[in-house]
Amino acid sequence: RSFLLMYLKRTKIVCTLGPSSDSVSEILKLVQSGMNVARLNFSHGSYDHHAKLIKNIHEVEKLTEKRIGIIQDLQGPKIRLGTLPQEGLTVKKNDTFILTSQKITGKQNNKTIIIPIQLKNFTKTLKKSGSVLINDGLIEAKILEVGKDKIKCRIISGGLIKSHAGVSFPGSAINIPPITEKDKKDLKFGLQQNVDYVALSFVKSAEDIKNLRKLIRKSSKDTKIIAKIERHAAVINLKEIIKESDGIMVARGDLGMDIPPEQVPIVQKRIIRLSNKFAKPVITATEVLLSMVVSPRATRAEISDAANAVFDHTDAIMLSNESAVGKFPSRAARTLSKVSETVEQELQKYEELLPIIQNKQISGNENLDCLNACELAMNTKANFLVVYTSDGSSAREIAKYRTYTPIIVITETEKTARELTLVWGLNKIFTSKIGKNEKEKINKIVALLKQKKEVKKGQKLVIICSASSKEKLISNITI
């Protein structure tokens, strides 16, 4: 049954690979538990290790005869502290400290605490009374004074600060290009390894996506780009970013430090809704099953969080530490599979909850053919909705309506087939070149599906071909 989970659920699962899941046997367990796409986090690990992961992923693909999409997640310009004493510095409530861009080792002399930050000109957009968050927000401080290359702060909630901890300044528009020199080197490696998607961290505008696309095209590639929404500026420019990107990630961890945490669920729903509208695959990420890093069971709140993401019509849910360094990586993936499958079955019971009813409201004239195909499949109780697509756009348009008629995709290239592993509901994807005229197309599609033993005599099919081009074809046939 574990092998069937990929086909019983429509919502995709992205798993971050790491020390807990880097072997062929562990990746195989993840796939058997429902993983569709692997994420490689380039904030950690050597090129040798990432190359090994990619090799192992392809080995598992051969073993399972299932495609596993690969996302390269670029680190981006994470702001970090400089070097501190090995034991770190402990700060308490109401302590004051100096944060400086001077190249020094952090120290504590008498009552003066000085902490270096690895960012020049960081004070330009900071204001008195602004906030400083250190170590993923566990330590919070208030800005008392702003100088040329330093700020004075007061601790609101204290703790232990160690070297190179992450720093953020909520609401402050610190202008750092999202593509660092490290990212450029990592990108070159990823493109050589033929990753399917590149995820860009700390996106602020559509221009950031355009700049990354230029770099990709310089390498004679056309790799798809996922924009990670984790900055206040990105929320402001959300629609433009989604239009320019090929996919979106709701990166709730860093987003929850740059905007008020209580706003994150609202923004999440907006991101998913807009991504659905523009037929862009969207991933809900961060702390989905965090307790499963150390516990074999998720909390009820975590199960509800995952279920709500499915209700919101996310394309995919992502595991981070749960699968990369956790004790129960495949069990966490299996938990998400069960949640997704259960919610999807319930959605099908009540017409008012069916996504196609809701998503009709977001359709534009350009994709009415895909909507018509979905409605025809639903109204005729078709066994399958078959999509023939060259670049994947028709398949993504079909998927955005979240129809529960099983979808089969036929495309010409392996590249497109791999990209569609991230898209909701597209579990059966075949590569084949189909004829040019209408009769030839239909006959070849039916012949291919019979050869693959996907269809049986007497079953009804709705077939849509090339809905994104001038030549469009929708057929309703019984085999």
Topology, element by element:
Blueprint: H1 5-8, E1 12-16, H2 24-32, E2 37-41, H3 47-64, E3 69-73, E4 89-91, E5 96-100, E6 107-109, E7 112-116, E8 131-134, E9 139-146, E10 150-157, E11 159-161, E12 167-168, H4 181-192, E13 197-200, H5 206-218, E14 224-229, H6 232-236, H7 238-244, E15 247-251, H8 252-258, H9 264-277, E16 282-285, H10 300-311, E17 316-319, H11 321-324, H12 329-347, H13 355-359, H14 368-379, E18 384-389, H15 393-400, E19 407-411, H16 414-419, E20 428-431, H17 438-451, E21 460-465, E22 473-478
Parallel strand pairs: 1-2, 1-17, 2-3, 3-13, 5-7, 13-14, 14-15, 15-16, 16-17, 18-19, 18-21, 19-20
Antiparallel strand pairs: 4-11, 5-10, 6-7, 8-9, 8-12, 9-10, 21-22
Helix pairs in contact: 2-3, 2-12, 5-7, 10-12
Structural description of this entry:
This protein has 17 helices and 22 strands. With 479 residues, it is α/β, with parallel strands linked by helices. The protein has an eight-stranded parallel beta barrel, surrounded by seven helices. Strands 6-7-5-10-9-8-12 form a seven-stranded mixed sheet, with no helix packed on it. Helix 2 packs across helix 3 (47-64).
